[in-house]
Write a structure and sequence with these properties.
With about 575 residues, the protein is an alpha+beta fold. Helix content is about 35%, strand content about 20%. The longest helix is centred in the first third of the chain and has 32 residues. The termini are far apart.
Length: about 575
Amino acid sequence: MRASFRLRIYTIGAAVLLFAILLVLRLYFVQIVHGEEYAGLADRQYVRSNTNLYDRGTLFFTDKNGILVAGARLKSGFIVALNPEMLEEDPSVVYEKLSAELPLERERFLAQASKKDDPYEEIAKQVSTTTGEYIEKLNLEGIQLYKEQWRYYPGTTLAAHTLGFVGYKGDDYAGRYGLERYYDDVLSRADNNLYVNFFAELFANLKSFAAGGEQTGDVVTSLEPSVQLFLEEKLKEVHDEWGSRQTAGIIINPQDGSIYAMGVYPSFDLNNYGDVEDVTVFSNPLVESVYEMGSIIKPITMGAALDSGAVTAQTTYEDTGKLTLDGYTISNFDGKGRGVVDMQEVLSQSLNTGVAFAVRKMGKDVYREYMEKFRIGQETGIDLPAESSGLIGYMEDGKPSPRDIEYATASFGQGIALTPINTVQALSVLANGGKLVTPHVGRELRFKNGLSREISFPGDGEQIIRPESANELTRMLVNVVDDALVEGKYKREHYSVAAKTGTAQIADPSGGYYDDRYLHSFFGYFPAYDAKYLIFLYTVEPKGVRYASQTLTKPFDDIVSFLINYYEVPPDR
């Protein structure tokens, strides 16, 4: 008898507990998962019953304190519509009252008001809440307000090429560029129907998450808004000062591939992308375009030579200023020879003949193998759409060129074309002790059901060169900044900074290279022996100037100063 009574108590208790759990889950779904949607329903005294509000997840920046800042979100407001049959006042009077707060074309409004057989004429969209409240107070018969949500970018142009935007392609409305496109499956919320079976939704969500399936929600990025803003200001300064065709840059943590900022100038306003006449401005050249990068490739060549044992920093060669291979002559930037110089001077004076010497010491096959390890010319796997591969056909495994000249020109960044992001990935190997990392912008997915997951990127951590080789190369690049870059003007007493400039001739489509068109590039990282920040800059066709040291050294130094102060980086020497 007692056992039977105890069983009934346990059964009732279990039932009560299960009911409580389901009640809590139901409250969670109502208040947390669907809180905004139900709030929208409660606010629909203005809205037609069959109206579904546009819904989409948020793209977040992350500031240095870990606080999330919306880079792309939804904005709420109203559609203002007109029912001509219900107008009680003269349309001209209605127009005057509305236009006091709502910009309207008079002739268009009057034409719409004359359509007595049309019960719905849309006269304005994306009307702010303030203006909507003003119109409501006018209490005009025939004027209707409908709740609306739309995609909004608080920073307007900030990180425009990285964020991308949402737009139409045919009848399909979805992410078209940048993160909006890459993470469209996560950000999209096509089914906004709240009247679904609670249990079906609950178990479907749990099953999907457990299986690693797609979930809708928000995307948290590693983009830091203040760093992004400062980078973009510097890019504009360079662009305007030198009349360049394009200027761009990336700031990345070379230890894990997290991108703090990436910017392109000229840019565009994400909230008014329809005003852009040349749609090519929407593409992200940091990921989609390839360039001959010039002498910033020399540290990669030298790192490979050091790691292979072909040279040391003290290895010397006879520099005559020129070198003829396979009937072609390459020369130093000034055509002058330096006599007997070592590998440190090759980097300090940026000698083309010196890195070509290092390649000959390695041998073509060894050099090609290292370039493949650095993933030169390959896609990085960055979480942005339309990434391009590089153009290094004669160095590809399986069909390598037998000629020495291609390997010699590749050693100083001519004759091979890389995307900027691929270049940054390879340079990060030098800055982090020799490991491969995947550049990325996404950091975390926060699903609509309240769960979250960090974004992982395969392939990280592969050792490309030995840590000792990377450290020696870093030491050499620190010497470049301390002693050679603008004659040591930018040496920092308490901070070790490793850096290198690059000046590349731009290829003429008809053959050869232009004599007066250059791509200037610059990269550097600090604190040099435990780098947390790698900065990459380039500007295309600056006017009236020859060398990258003239256009990009000062902006690079300004960015270093900003990062030191902003992140309170402690001195390392």
